[in-house]
């Protein structure tokens, strides 16, 4: 997530992307503004990073000497370059989203084929209906509602198409098939005869051997 706390860096080396800092407008131009953030080197805000609304003239929004709050977008300590923005950064950039990440998001849209979840990225991710729960899901609203917070796992990220595939069931244990387990346990059971049953079996085996011997004797005779 973007840093909500106002930080007070002392040097350019203290600056990090998404860090929120206080600044003072030193100068405005057609392209943007130069801002002092207290690290010895001024930062630059491009006109496109001043407001979500379209800005035609920087001077209409920012004035020299004005105190503002900004976020660090990029910083290059060696080149002494600092890029700033007045637009709150996204929680995650595309390069930060990777398969197997476990995240918390909010359901923003529900379709027949699944739900879209805001994970604070540029676009919401999709949990296909087949990834919502183990077993059959009749409709997504049987599992979640719009605005509900859910735990998800990243399955796949397509940066070119700006697509994020998510799963809810990947974070849940698969249901156990009790019938199969009972069958396996029954197959593993070994019946141990009692001493009495063992004695009877031994006597029966001995009697059978005696009968076989008598039959052989009569046959040979």
Describe the overall structure.
With 221 residues, the chain is α+β, with helices and mostly antiparallel strands. The chain contains 2 helices and 11 strands; from the N terminus they run E-E-E-E-E-E-E-E-E-E-E-H-H. The N and C termini lie far apart (99 Å). The model has no long low-confidence stretch (mean pLDDT 86).
Separation, N- and C-terminal Cα atoms: 99 Å
By CATH, the architecture of the largest domain is named: Beta Barrel
Q: How large, in whole angstroms, is the Cα Rg? A: 36 Å
Query: Which band does the percent of strand residues land in?
Result: 25-35%
Shape: elongated
* Quaternary state of the chains: single chain
Major beta sheet summary? 5 strands, mixed, barrel
Give the proportion of residues in helices: 10-25%
Structural class: alpha+beta
Q: What is the tally of helical segments?
A: 2
Mean pLDDT: 86
Order of helices and strands: EEEEEEEEEEEHH
CATH topology of the largest domain: OB fold (Dihydrolipoamide Acetyltransferase, E2P)
Strand order of the largest sheet: 2-3-4-6-5
Number of spatially distinct domains? 2
Low-confidence runs:
none
The beta-strand count equals: 11
Q: What is the CATH homology-level superfamily of the largest domain?
A: Nucleic acid-binding proteins
CATH class assignment of the largest domain: Mainly Beta
